[in-house]
Amino acid sequence: MTSTVVAAERMPTTRRYLMCPPRFFAVEYSINPWMDPSRPMDRDLAEQQWTKLHDTYVDLGHKVETIEPQPGLPDMVFAANSATVVDGRVLGANFRAPQRAAEADHYRRWFIENGYHNVVMPTRINEAEGDFAWTGKFLLAGTGFRTDPGAHAEAQEVLGVPVVSLQLVDPRYYHLDTALFVLNEDEPNIAYYPAAFSKGSQKVLSRLFPQAVIATAEDADCFGLNAVSDGRNVILPTEATALAKQLESRGYEPIFVEISELKKSGGGPKCCTMEIRG
């Protein structure tokens, strides 16, 4: 018997995001398959694309705060990699690549200066929302290329939420947020690209989310899964057209943004967007 997913009326919820302007953005080294320092990059265009993403959130009624970028940290624009926040508890980051290590303390100080006293810095390699996705009930946690498996247990202890570990197997999708995103948290559902995960993790996701949106290889390749949803509006790259059609059929409202320059460093809308919950 074939199941049919009926489009529901989706209700957005107001979100609070932290972003970092790409003032010093550049591709100066290679720490993922998308990065090629010899490839031309237009920083002015990157700033325009980031500004459009920022303004899209504001236009949707979300609160967007910014952290001051720092020279010598070209990837600091990817705010999602620097903390995971659930119910006001903040778990910072501990980057695998030495080129990004200093970013973690700048974000830690931002939280302290903005009134967050329950801030814990991890002892294990942990690249925050790059590999952690809060579903509203439990935390999906990726490993395989960046975040250590031991960081999953640490996140459970610090954040006080159940954690489901997932194994990434394709180096192009080196972070969980390149292969999966949460569509809504009221009745948790996701969109994901199965081939980015091990066979066992595919079975886990299928069991947990039988109504998930399954992305095509083309959607995954254009960073379509590095998307941000507020429960109705879904911000995703302009090339993710097949994914957008699936989302529309489920009652979501796709909103396209250009990420051509950000993608040259292996990032997209979600990479630039840390969500602050509580």
TrEMBL record:
Could you list this entry's UniProt keywords, alphabetically sorted: Hydrolase
Indicate the segments annotated as coiled coil, or none if absent. Answer: none
InterPro entries on file = DDAH-like
Q: Which Pfam families match?
A: DDAH_eukar (PF19420)
The family this protein is said to belong to: Belongs to the DDAH family.
Protein's name in the database? N-dimethylarginine dimethylaminohydrolase
